[in-house]
Amino acid sequence: MNNKMAIRIADKDNVAVALQPVMEGETLDIGGRKAVALQDVPQGHKIALADISRDAYVVKYGFPIGHATEDIKAGAWVHTHNMKTNLKGEVEYSYEPCWQELPSLPVRTFKGYLRQDGRAGTRNEIWIIPTVGCVNDVAKRLASANQDLVEKNVDGLHAFEHPFGCSQTGADHAQTKKLLAALVRHPNAGAVLVVSLGCENCTHEQFLEELGEYDSNRVKFLTCQHVEDELAEGRKLLEELAGFAQRSVRAEIGVDHLLVGLKCGASDGLSGITANPAVGRFSDLLIRQGGSTILTEVPEMFGAEGMLMGRCRTKEVFSKAERMLNGFKDYFISHHEVVYDNPSPGNKQGGITTLEDKSCGCVQKGGTAPIEDVIGYAEPAKVKGLTLLYGPGNDLVSSTALTAAGAGLILFTTGRGTPFGAPVPTIKIATNTQLAKRKGNWIDFNAGSIAQGESLEDAGERLLSYVLEVASGKQTNNEKNGFRQISIFKDGVVL
After folding, report:
1. Among residues 323, 275, 321, 283, which one has the least CA distance to residue 451?
2. How far apart are CA 334 and CA 265, in angstroms?
3. Which sign, positive or negative, has the C-alpha torsion 222, 228, 232, 233?
4. Where are the domains of the chain?
5. Is residue 315 within 8 Å of residue 372, measured between CB atoms?
6. pLDDT score recorded for residue 341
7. Residue 87 CA to its chain's centroid (Å)
8. What is the 3-class SS of 431-481, one letter each residue?
9. CB atoms within 10 A of CB 13
10. Potential cystine with 404: which of 182, 225, 308, 374 (Cβ 3.0-4.6 Å)?
11. Per CATH, which fold does 6-84 belong to?
């Protein structure tokens, strides 16, 4: 077997990853280590390059991703049947800075919408935001019945349903208001209609307080219990909003105004080898031009802290990252859940064995740039460069959180495919070419070419060019399919 069929990611690794299915009896020759496959090894799965004793670390990406539960022979398939996680609970971290400043690059441009607050939108849409789930169908009806307003410079008219806004208490109630207000302020929304019922916990007065100062030409409010015909009244308000949104025009904007969310879902064993590191190269390229990226999915940082914590620019940022990581572990433990039960059945089928295995691949999306800040759920990104965001791994919840933080589009890597789309353009990046070919109606960008010889640097450059096309108006498949959803992070009781 040659290097095109399997890869040893780091010199310290005692396993290689099959880029193609390995048949029993085939010889593996990677980095001077040879092993004969003792059984079939599926694509994306691990094969031992040396004998690994029981309880010894299994090393991938140069970091332990678990330990052997039995003696493993060189050439053996390494997966859930013979290895387990090393993770337990909270960790006390020490700050050992190891970041380097990335050299700057000339600033490229895209055609976007520069807003009054200095942020840039990649779309100029009218958004309908319900403050409570009771009016979801009203919001949907208003969106579907008024598509004729999508003309001139208006890129779309969309409603975002959710089940909350009432019968919530404490932190959940506050979190719902915060998330919805962040969506109202989003730069991709050229105009917004906020639809409420009139008797919900999330009152109009509370929402106005959460929203803060706003442009009354850009944001309108409809309280359904206060009008005779909410659909007719909604139409009037949408006509006014469309007139305002039509004033916005695309213009050349430097990518130093671009904010991109980084996300992975339905991962496989190639995620950390092809798509995620390609996104990491993109992230570094964008940041070198003054742009910004956001990395979330905190549970998928567990076990990969060694790749992240030393990259915090200051001790203050490090302390915020430490609180974020251990705070999320406390969240798990307070619900009587272990902190390491994350890889899904699909992840495992694709070759991911432990949470450390998944995490070390997941954080590749963040590239090598210094970590400039750590923000909470539904908080806006405040500084240029790479920011970490508090949020779970769940695709819908984390993509909504990235949107609320201000991301103008999201890069979503996947090894198994998903049709899901966030409120903002969601670029689906396949980890393998088979998926890209099979699900061309979902996938926007193929990173599987890396497993066939394309360099990560070339893939990163190719991805940057594609992102600038999308930021300038090229539609992603989730937009073409009309697939857009939000999901709000919930922790407490429902009354």
Report:
1. 275
2. 25
3. negative
4. 6-84, 125-249, 255-481
5. no
6. 64
7. 23
8. CCHHHHHHCCCCCCEECHHHHHCCCHHHHHHHHHHHHHHHHCCCCCHHHHH
9. 23
10. 182
11. 2.30.130
Virtual CA dihedral for 234, 239, 241, 247, nearest 10 degrees? 170
Closest residue by Cα to residue 142 from 222, 247, 228: 222
Q: CA-to-CA distance for 268 and 311, rounded, in angstroms?
A: 26
What is the architecture, at CATH level 2, of domain 125-249? Answer: 3-Layer(aba) Sandwich (3.40)
Ordered DSSP codes for 52-95: B-TTPEEEETTEEEEEESS-B-TT-EESTTTEE----S------
- The structure tokens listed for 318 are 């490090």
Pairing of strands 385-389, 371-375: parallel
Return the biggest CA–CA distance within the chain.
78
pTM of the predicted protein model: 0.94
- What does the radius of gyration of the chain's CA atoms come to, in whole angstroms? 23
Alpha-carbon distance values, 69 to 50, 57, 60, 85, 88 (Å): 15, 10, 16, 10, 16
Quickly count: other Cβ atoms within 10 Å of residue 233's Cβ.
16
Per residue, the 3-state secondary structure of 381-407, as one string, reads: CCCCEEEEECCCCCHHHHHHHHHHCCC
pLDDT tens-digit profile of 476-485? Answer: 999 999 999 9
Q: Which of 73, 76, 79, 69 is nearest to 45 (CA)?
A: 79
Residue whose pair of structure tokens reads 């600038």 in the numeric block:
468
**DSSP code string of 307-375:** HHGGGBSSHHHHHHHHHHHHHHHHHHHHTT--TT----HHHHHTT--SHHHHHHHHGGGGTTSPEEEEE
CA distance 375 to 393: 16
- pLDDT for res 249: 97
Residue 366 sits at φ, ψ, to 5 deg, of -80, 0
DSSP state of 236: H
Q: What are phi and psi of 335, to 5 degrees?
A: -100, 15
Query: Token pair 């904007």 is at which residue?
Result: 253
H/E stretch holding 111 reads strand 109-114
**Regions of the chain short of the pLDDT cut 50:** 1-4
Structure tokens at 175: 């979190």
Q: C-alpha distances in angstroms, 379 versus 164, 175, 279, 382?
A: 19, 10, 23, 9
Is 163 buried (19+), middle (13-18) or exposed (0-12) by CB count in 10 A?
middle
Q: Would you state the pLDDT for residue 88? A: 77
Paired residues of 259 in beta bridges:
292
Q: Nearest Cα to 422, choosing from 125, 191, 167, 118?
A: 125
